[in-house]
């Protein structure tokens, strides 16, 4: 019997799992939990490819038996993930236990390869004529599967029964439970075939491929989130990356005037992928640069700009800061040796300071253009907000 999954759909699924798996290997591989997930994806991908390379779904087909072996490896890696989830063991203990689980999967695969041809030699479906070989095959493959399924079912139900679970967590555990529905459904159908003589359109070996493919697609989708997050962070499309882009023109200009305050390595490069750290460093460097440019700004005094509100005062300060940047870069002497009191950037916590710097960055292009059009023309005017 041929696979009910068409070649076009099957290869599309393989391509999808390959893309997610390669992305995780490149961007999500540091934590031991992620390493186990990545290995699980690779074994799942091997199983999907073997199913595609099987000319006919039969328990006597070597490629089918190898696909069942890959399924056993996936199952035992999932079992290792469940135990890590429950116990939180250290890295050495986790890998030691995983070697044991992988050995169980290897034994299961060997038994399947040895007994598979005999299991299919009777000329009937194995579940309709369970000889000794058929019992060996389905016990070697089914026992780890049922153990892992029951462990995950219990863990998911436990997490869902917690008080006030987060919506994202509730959705995750609900989808995990959904991935086990085909396994439980196949178990019911198998009992019906063996115990009550049900006649079904697809034999158990075919249903195993369907369940495996469904679980592989759903599991791959569930673990794609961290990889997508890392890709967005790498491309600067996450929240902190977008804030960095908004601050970059201001950061670039003020640090060019005071390059000695830039921490090494410079945060403007593409080699730094931690956008949260990049945002923090850019904020600190902008603040330090403004402090260093303080003597180039005129002393604060009451002005119409101050009475016109914060927006107007911020625009005036941005223009004075642009003049100070130009003066420092041109090698002109400062206007005073003592920085004046600051009235615009007065935050005492990071979130407020970030908002103020973003406001300053929004008016910075206009202030810079104005300063370039009339360099240093307004440096002597009183009344701007300064540091």
Structure commentary:
Residues 266-272 and 377-387 have low confidence and may be disordered. The chain is elongated. The chain is mostly helical and 387 residues long. The chain folds into 2 domains: 7-232, Up-down Bundle (Rhopdopsin 7-helix transmembrane proteins); 237-373, no CATH class. It has 14 helices and no strands.
Distance between the termini: 80 Å
Number of strands: 0
- Please state the average pLDDT score: 79
Give the amount of beta strand, in percent. under 5%
Radius of gyration based on Cα positions: 32 Å
Q: Mind telling me which CATH architecture of the largest domain this is?
A: Up-down Bundle
CATH homologous superfamily of the largest domain?
A: Rhodopsin 7-helix transmembrane proteins
How would you sum up this structure in a few lines?
It contains 14 helices and no strands. The protein is mainly alpha-helical and 387 residues long.
Record the SSE blueprint.
Elements lengths: L6 H21 L4 H21 L9 H26 L3 H29 L12 H29 L6 H13 L1 H16 L7 H19 L1 H11 L4 H19 L17 H18 L11 H4 L2 H21 L19 H24 L14
Helix pairs in contact: 1-2, 1-8, 1-9, 2-3, 2-8, 3-4, 3-5, 4-5, 5-6, 6-8, 7-8, 10-11, 10-13, 10-14, 13-14
């Amino acid at each position: 019997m041929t696979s009910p999954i068409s070649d076009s759909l099957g290869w599309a699924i393989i391509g999808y799992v390959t893309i997610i798996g390669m992305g995780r290997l490149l961007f999500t591989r540091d934590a031991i939990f992620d390493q186990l997930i990545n290995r699980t994806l690779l074994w799942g991908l091997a199983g999907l490819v073997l199913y595609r390379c099987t000319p006919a779904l039969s328990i006597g087909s070597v490629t089918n038996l190898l696909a069942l072996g890959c399924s056993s490896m996936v199952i035992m890696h999932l079992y290792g993930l469940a135990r890590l989830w429950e116990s939180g063991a250290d890295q050495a203990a986790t890998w030691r236990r995983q070697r044991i689980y992988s050995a169980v999967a290897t034994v299961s695969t060997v038994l399947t390869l040895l007994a598979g041809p005999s299991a299919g030699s009777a000329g009937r479906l194995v579940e309709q004529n369970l000889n000794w070989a058929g019992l060996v095959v389905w016990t070697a493959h089914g026992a780890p599967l049922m153990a892992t399924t029951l462990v995950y079912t219990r863990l998911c139900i436990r997490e869902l029964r917690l008080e006030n679970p987060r919506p994202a967590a509730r959705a995750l555990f609900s989808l995990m439970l959904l991935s086990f529905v085909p396994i439980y459904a196949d178990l019911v159908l198998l009992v019906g075939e063996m115990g009550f003589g049900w006649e079904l359109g697809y034999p158990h070996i075919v249903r195993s491929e369907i369940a495996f493919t469904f679980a592989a697609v759903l599991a791959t989708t569930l673990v794609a989130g961290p990889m997508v997050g890392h890709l967005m962070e790498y491309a600067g499309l996450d929240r902190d990356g977008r804030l960095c882009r908004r601050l970059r023109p201001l950061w670039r200009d003020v640090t060019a005037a005071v390059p000695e305050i830039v921490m090494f390595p410079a945060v403007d490069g593409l080699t730094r992928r931690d956008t949260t750290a990049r945002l923090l460093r850019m904020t600190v460097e902008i603040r330090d640069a403004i402090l260093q440019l303080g003597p180039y700004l005129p002393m604060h005094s009451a002005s119409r700009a101050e009475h016109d509100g914060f927006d107007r005062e911020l625009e005036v300060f941005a223009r004075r800061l642009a003049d100070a940047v130009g003066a420092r870069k041109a090698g002109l002497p400062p206007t005073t040796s003592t920085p004046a009191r600051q009235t615009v950037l007065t935050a005492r916590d990071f979130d407020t300071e970030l908002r103020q710097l973003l406001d300053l960055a929004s008016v910075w292009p206009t202030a810079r253009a104005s300063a370039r059009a009339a360099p240093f023309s307004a440096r002597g005017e009183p009344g701007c907000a300064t540091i």
